[in-house]
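pls design
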């Protein structure tokens, strides 16, 4: 029988992060059954230690070794919680691979996650940075997040409105060491209500000859676009978008728009702000396809840093800092990394 968890010393992390950079965890807990987590997390061995929870390793950069205990969650249960004929609640363990979960819900005829197909990572990581793509954010479908609250030393249920979701942000990200996501409940629907208004998605469906798409067909279109536009971490190490799209006050956006009419901008978190395309800003500074040894910028998408093979996390971070400095010098806009940087401060 498989053990509920194992403890590894000096565990190599290169295959546990999608950048494929080398790092070592002093102590790694590999948890196969989430049922042990409440007791394990409350134990004296883990309760007071700084903790790094590792999902698919697709949203972090090891710029050095973590000095915290690493917890790797591999429990992969998916359960139907409620079905009232249309609204369906599905619970998935944090360790379930995100894209496999999206495909599972589509196979059950459930709609809501189709625009989020092919995002790397796990279910547990999804609410932390509120993953988003093609006009949809995961918080739109989240019903509740079950967490272990390390401050209170017990399990807690946070409903969607308790999670302070915002663009690539949440309560879990703002207080990084307090909550461990154990499982997530999603409210999905049998009735398709797909968002098709994001640039390129409607065109892709038209090119596929589809006028009224099913949720599965929307997911297929998203997969096609992502495969074309974004490098596959299985082929070349990367963590998706390395920078967040900066959100600036409307007045600053107006000045930038007048000086650079081609700069794409979208509504920010409120009407008083605008979200700028970081990819465009970086591209305009000439970084697309740039390489410093094995640390580089994707030649497909300017927002994606890539590891051509042997780059260290510190080299990738150094490149990211140079990119941000050049964007700041040219546009007076500050870029911030989207992935969590471990072992260094931004
Ligand atoms: N653009 C460039 N150069 C490039 C790429 C894009 O100038 O190399 C410009 C284009 O003009 C385009 C605009 O940037 O109109 C926006 O590009 P895109 O549609 O690819 O979206 P994005 O804002 O760069 C965001 C997410 C992606 C998500 C896509 C699609 C962030 C930080 N990134 O990228 O998420 O897949 O939208 O919805 O919000 C991720 O978070 O890891 C990620 C890949």
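designed seq:
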């Amino acid at each position: 029988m498989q053990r509920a968890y194992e403890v590894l010393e000096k565990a190599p992390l290169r295959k546990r992060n999608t950048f494929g950079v080398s790092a070592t965890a002093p102590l790694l807990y590999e948890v196969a059954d989430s049922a042990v987590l409440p007791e394990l997390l409350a134990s004296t061995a883990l309760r007071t230690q700084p903790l790094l929870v590792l999902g698919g390793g697709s949203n972090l950069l090891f710029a050095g070794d973590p000095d915290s205990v690493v917890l790797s969650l591999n429990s992969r249960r998916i359960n139907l919680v409620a079905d009232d004929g249309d609204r369906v609640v599905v619970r998935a363990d944090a360790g379930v691979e995100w894209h496999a979960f999206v495909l599972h819900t589509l196979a059950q005829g459930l709609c809501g996650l189709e625009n989020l197909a092919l995002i790397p990572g796990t279910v547990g990581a999804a609410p932390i940075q509120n993953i988003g793509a093609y006009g949809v954010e995961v918080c739109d479908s989240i019903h509740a997040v079950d967490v272990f609250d390390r401050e209170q030393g017990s399990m807690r249920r946070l409903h969607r409105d308790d999670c302070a979701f915002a663009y690539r942000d949440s309560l879990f990200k703002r207080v990084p060491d307090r909550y461990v996501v154990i499982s997530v409940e999603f409210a999905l629907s049998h009735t398709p209500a797909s968002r098709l208004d994001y640039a390129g998605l409607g065109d892709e469906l038209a090119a596929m000859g589809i006028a009224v798409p099913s949720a599965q067909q929307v997911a297929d279109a998203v997969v096609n676009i992502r495969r074309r536009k974004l490098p596959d971490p299985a082929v070349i190490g990367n963590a998706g978008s390395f920078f967040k799209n900066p959100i600036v006050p409307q007045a600053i956006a107006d000045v930038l728009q007048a000086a650079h009419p081609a700069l794409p901008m979208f509504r920010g978190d409120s009407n008083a702000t605008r979200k700028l395309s970081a990819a465009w800003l970086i591209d305009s500074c000439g970084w697309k396809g740039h390489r410093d040894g094995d640390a580089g910028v994707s030649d497909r998408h300017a927002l994606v840093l890539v590891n051509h093979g042997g780059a260290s996390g510190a080299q990738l971070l150094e490149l990211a800092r140079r990119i941000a400095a050049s964007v700041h010098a040219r546009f007076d806009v500050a870029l911030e990394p989207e992935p969590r940087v471990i072992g260094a401060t931004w």
